[in-house]
Amino acid sequence: MHFLNDIALDIFSALQRCTSLITLKKAHAKFFPHGLYDTNLLTKIAVLYVSFDKVDNARCVFERVSNPGSYLWNVLIRGYANQGRFSPSLGLYSKMMQKGLKPDRYTFPFALKSCAGLSDLKLGRLVHQHSVCCGCQHDVFVSAALVDMYAKCGNVEAARLVFDKMPVRDLVSWTSMISGYAHNGCNCETLDLFDLMRDSGIRPNRVGVLSVLLACGNLGALRKGEWLHSYVIQTGFEFDVRVATAIMDMYTKCASLDLARRLFDATPGKDVVCWSAMIASYGIHGQGRKSLDLFNDMLRATVRPNHVTFTCILSACSHSGLLEEGKRCFESMVKEYGIAPQLNNYACMVDLLSRSGQLFEAEKLIENMPVEPDASIWGSLLGACRIYGNLDLAERIADQIFLLDPFHAGYHVLLSNIYAAKSRWKEVEKVRKLMMRRGANKVQGFSLIEFKNVVHKFGVGDRSHPQSGKIYAVLDELAAPMKRLGYVPLTDFVLHDIEEEAKEEALLYHSERLAIAFGLINTPPGTPIRITKNLRICGDCHNAIKLISKIVNRVIIVRDIHRFHHFEDGLCSCGDYW
């Protein structure tokens, strides 16, 4: 017995000196000849295996422990969660509960992390209940994990309730809530909470800065984004390539492409993500040639493109109608770089062919794809059917789309647009009734404009704004000069079988026009007006804004869900190709 105790002490001493996986395995091997099953030694070995990211080895050791304590259970649950193996992590959590062991403040953060990783809100709520029963819900680490879990599961309201009840909020909890808002599209809330965090004396970390930059870009909040850029310089994050790339993306989305390029040129150590982001920036602004030039610069800089890079360059070709160039890029993926096209790459190629009028070639590409097409790929082709008025193909495609995604309102609306353009009002009504039966609610369109660090939001026919009287007066004043310049309302974009006069009035007060009128009222003459719209700009508004830009002698920049439109002197940068 004394002999075995001496060996155990010798092994424990060896474990204390382990600095690599090799030395750990050597120490572990000393167990087997002597049949040692000392719980403390096994626990120490399991912990060390997890520290070297060898969770499966640790699990084998764990299974040899006759009665593992909470500490060892927590180590394994944490190890699996940190590896992104969320199901085994939660499986151990469940077994731990079945064994009658009480989870603690070290258990819940990683069980919740696993729920978040699986987007399992139901299970996350159950773990939340367990934390309450165990009296751990107010622990700062558990609370932060709860905020993160609810946010990543899409329930930002529950996340905020937990956040507001926290007795102490550290940097992690603030960052979790800010990031949760940003990644759930709650952009104004992101900026408001960021300001509140700074007022509380908490200095943001890298993740927080990235989240706020994302929100600024989504809102088109250029002034706030510029302030944040200066803050990044003051805090030293400017040398982080990922942060620099996020600032570039923010400037791009705020229609300041020159600032984005200036920052790109000044960023040292540009990686493939940074290059791809700048290529994409030119693409969404309709400058496909510059995207191609930059892609060639990237290759000369010996930065190897990946499938995301090709998605960016193919998308740029699509937005600029560069059919042959896009085809060559698509072919080079496999032939020159050995990259198998993924779904996004095929989607861009289908979009390029569709927009170029090659509808049947696009359909053939979809049918011959080695990967299963999703609804969005068929949706690109359906959108082209609207542009080119191909009703027969549209009806055939719609059947495919509704099988894959029967609840997406956008595809129903697109088909309605196609029927309405042909004055097929009975079919329009059928599609609308189908939407209602399926519960596919149409996304409400809105437009945003920033003025004096405040983002103003407008909906179609919106009269809630304090300046609505002036806004509508401006639009009414513009109507006559627009008609003199040849404006004829495209009433087929109004999906109702109503009188033409009523259709024209419905078009006049679309959200982007209200936002532009607000900009004309509140900004100095000659300054650009920047608008962000959550949906695709309709054909009638596109025609109208071209004329408005000429009448008021302003550059008007509209970012819709797909791309930017730079309107100036009666023309658009997209060349009416969008």
From TrEMBL:
<dbReference type="InterPro" id="IPR002885">
    <property type="entry name" value="PPR_rpt"/>
</dbReference>
<feature type="domain" description="DYW">
    <location>
        <begin position="486"/>
        <end position="578"/>
    </location>
</feature>
<dbReference type="InterPro" id="IPR046848">
    <property type="entry name" value="E_motif"/>
</dbReference>
<dbReference type="GO" id="GO:0009451">
    <property type="term" value="P:RNA modification"/>
</dbReference>
<dbReference type="InterPro" id="IPR046960">
    <property type="entry name" value="PPR_At4g14850-like_plant"/>
</dbReference>
<dbReference type="Pfam" id="PF01535">
    <property type="entry name" value="PPR"/>
</dbReference>
<dbReference type="Pfam" id="PF14432">
    <property type="entry name" value="DYW_deaminase"/>
</dbReference>
<feature type="repeat" description="PPR">
    <location>
        <begin position="306"/>
        <end position="341"/>
    </location>
</feature>
<feature type="repeat" description="PPR">
    <location>
        <begin position="170"/>
        <end position="204"/>
    </location>
</feature>
<dbReference type="InterPro" id="IPR011990">
    <property type="entry name" value="TPR-like_helical_dom_sf"/>
</dbReference>
<dbReference type="Pfam" id="PF13041">
    <property type="entry name" value="PPR_2"/>
</dbReference>
<protein>
    <recommendedName>
        <fullName>DYW domain-containing protein</fullName>
    </recommendedName>
</protein>
<feature type="repeat" description="PPR">
    <location>
        <begin position="69"/>
        <end position="103"/>
    </location>
</feature>
<dbReference type="GO" id="GO:0008270">
    <property type="term" value="F:zinc ion binding"/>
</dbReference>
<comment type="similarity">
    <text>Belongs to the PPR family. PCMP-H subfamily.</text>
</comment>
<dbReference type="Pfam" id="PF20431">
    <property type="entry name" value="E_motif"/>
</dbReference>
<dbReference type="GO" id="GO:0003723">
    <property type="term" value="F:RNA binding"/>
</dbReference>
<keyword id="KW-0677">Repeat</keyword>
<dbReference type="InterPro" id="IPR032867">
    <property type="entry name" value="DYW_dom"/>
</dbReference>
<dbReference type="Pfam" id="PF20430">
    <property type="entry name" value="Eplus_motif"/>
</dbReference>
<feature type="repeat" description="PPR">
    <location>
        <begin position="271"/>
        <end position="305"/>
    </location>
</feature>
<dbReference type="InterPro" id="IPR046849">
    <property type="entry name" value="E2_motif"/>
</dbReference>
